[in-house]
Amino acid sequence: MTTSANWPLLEADNVSVTFPVSGGLFTAKKRVHAVSNVTLSIAPGETLGLVGESGSGKSTLGRALLQLEHIADGEVRFDGQRVTHGLRSDVARLRQQTAMIFQDPFASLNPRQTIGESIAEVLRVHKKVARPAIAARVAELLTRVGLRPEQASVRPGQLSGGQCQRAGIARALAMEPRLIVADECVAALDVSIQGQIVNLLMELRETMGLAILFIAHDLSIVRRLCDRVAVMYLGRIVESGPSEAVFRSPRHPYTAALVAAIPEIDPDKTLPADPLGGEPPSPVAIPQGCAFHPRCPYAQVQCRTDAPPTRRHAEHVWSCVLMQAGDNAIFPLTGGYKDEAQAC
Ligand code: SF4
């Protein structure tokens, strides 16, 4: 086994995930391109936000990175070792050192088991501590996430949503993970509870050096929690970079529209009624050229046929024909930036 602190903890290289969908009686089977040619990396201790509308492929990508979805093309490396079609020992190490937190805290725990039994099961199956030490470790993990050790004896149905999510996080921590994939883990909670869970994740990141892939559609939380952000549209990453750069100067019109819709940035601002101009197209029939062109207020003739070029300014990367690095005019409809001279 080769490891290095200098390597990203997790890397995805041109990863694609497709699903078959049944065609009609006389039509050929089609495939949904849920994730297309995604390249990203997460460093040890880093929090990467993955954002986009529902159906953009965020959750599928999160599961694919943990090898819970079949990868049609490309590869994932964990700690420098290939895990897509890799050695069984490398895949086992990925499973030992990663964990997921899910959106529905009640569905992620067995309703027939007590919270303590659910956590103890992970410790036992993955041989994390000797059997006589399991009860003490369960109590320690519950305390770690802000629950009382006595709550080990209750079932998920006896807890509030926030307490249940804390129990889910304790179960994930039982793996002693280096990377957690948190899939919309606060979306089902009240706003005040969301803040508590985000604070807990930030504290765990600081104290345990956890890397977190934080999948969310709430950009205000992502801005607060994440070091970097990647924006997905119809299975592709259309913009990525340090959170501050992406939120302050979004370079892709889709990102600019999402950022403009965050109320807390300017609570007095009148938002466009429909900043994105309708529903995203079906992933079964992704538009040619730039997939965003049917909804893009700045689409140009070539956007219908040509794939958008990739632009880069330091760590900030985006795929759009409009802006070169250094352009800084404002997108009038979305609150982001654009080169006025190139608008249609
Ligand atoms: Fe809009 Fe064209 Fe840029 Fe796509 S490439 S986001 S359609 S301007």
From the structure above, extract its key features:
344 residues, alpha/beta, Rossmann fold, 2 domains, 8-stranded mixed beta sheet, 4-stranded antiparallel beta sheet, 12 strands, 22% strand, globular, disordered C terminus, binds iron/sulfur cluster, ATP-binding
Tally of helical segments: 9
Order of helices and strands: EEEHEEHEHHHEHEHEEHHEE
- The overall strand count is 12
The side-by-side strand order for the widest beta sheet comes to 6-7-8-3-9-10-12-11
Largest sheet: 8 strands, mixed
Strand content: 15-25%
Structural class: alpha/beta
**What proportion of the residues is helical, as a percent range?**
25-40%
**Through-space gap between termini:** 54 Å
CATH homologous superfamily assignment of the largest domain: P-loop containing nucleotide triphosphate hydrolases
Anisotropy-based shape: globular
CATH architecture of the largest domain: 3-Layer(aba) Sandwich
Ligand roster: iron/sulfur cluster
